[in-house]
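WARN no homologs supplied; continuing
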Amino acid sequence: MISQASETPTDPAEDEPPRGRWHVRLVNSLAGRLLGLTVLVVLLAEVLVFAPSLSRFHYEWLRERSNLAYVAALALEREPEADIDEALAARLLEEAGALRITLRTEGEQPRVLVAQRDIAARTIDRALGYAQANAYGGWLWAFDTLTSPEGRTLRVIARPHVFSSDVIEVVLDEAPLRRATRAYALELFAVSMLVSVVAGSLVYAVLIVAFVRPMRRMTRNIERFRKRPSDATRFLPVTWRKDEIGRAERAIRAMQSEIHASLRQRQRLAQLGGAMARVAHDLRNMLTTAQLVTHRIATSTDPEVRAAAPRLERSIGRAAGLAASALRYGRAEETPQVFQAVTLDEAVKEAFAEALAGFSEVDGRIGSGAHARVIADPDHLHRLLVNLIRNAAQAVRTASAHDPDHPRRVTVSAIPKGPKVAISVSETGCGIPQRAAAKLFEPFASGRGDGVGLGLAIARELAQAQGGELELVSTGPEGTVFQLTLPAA
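OK structure emitted
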């Protein structure tokens, strides 16, 4: 099955190959290098086929002459030496193509059975010992015959057959052998070149279709996608292939999807940053007015109001500072951190007071180990705990809305772990869906319909900035547990 991405008309200049001389483009392209490799393999195959075949022909030609000479020698050996007819001898020499035939039998003297009168005046230029050599071992002799000069005389030493103890020596003129070898070499070269070219062309065509074209398509698609990664129509179409090219296509398609999603997220963050800058401008003015009102509340005669005023003033001060930071930089840039020893008990109580202000039905509890001390920035730790506790309280409220008898509890406890302190924030909600848990700490990945999806992303960023880590420990129908790890004081 093939899933295709829709294609849109593109600028022809985008798909235009690099300019330059044709031979430079050919050498620098995958197709050109593949062509060169194919030609090299074809030439190598030509050499591997040509040399043994020529050597075999050379061997068979000389063996045929040796066998004819042996037959002639056996026929003449039966006649008394005085009765040998010179005309018959000349004819047998002509049939065998020999100038002289010598038969050697084990334990006997060599016998020269036939010889031309002028043989004594001729010089033996080369001796070929085929008595022990095989058909494929004499390729150098075959090439020597191809390039030999005119008028050479050969002496061939061979056995008539495998089981014979006789050795036949034939002296002959090399000219007929040279002509036959050259004719066979030209014919063999033409046929083998034709076969090699056809086979090489088929192999090259298959490689181009099966490998070069998909690679070229992937390369052009990546180049087009690089110029406009926000355009989803430029995704690489994924084919049915199961080999490495198919795996590469699927990996490239997945990478393009991730880059496209990341760019969309960055655009949303940029838009959010612009919106936050506008909101921060108005919010700062509102918080300035709220601070003035807080000063008046602190002078109230009601003791409960006066007790709540400092906490309200600190919360408004933090909000005003964050709004001013967002307004200055166009995004929520964190202020420089000031690390110090912080007692968890006090930080958790203050976080409970702020995070559970609108959740009167939720029971906030401080578990064991809260007396531990950690190294952290107090303001950033406060924001981190408020985010976690508020998320937990919202999960408990959602669960209790479906079941009024459901427990409504958020617990914060701590356990020392060597140089670290593990802070657990657990709640009795109904758990996080598996699909949402996979992207829990990504921006805008909210598990609630009314959520923005930034609380846990900000919380993890704050934890990592303080040398710690925030992770999901467990989730299910009985509730969810987050663990915050910070350096111990």
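The CA atoms of residues 99 and 117 lie 9 Å apart.
OK
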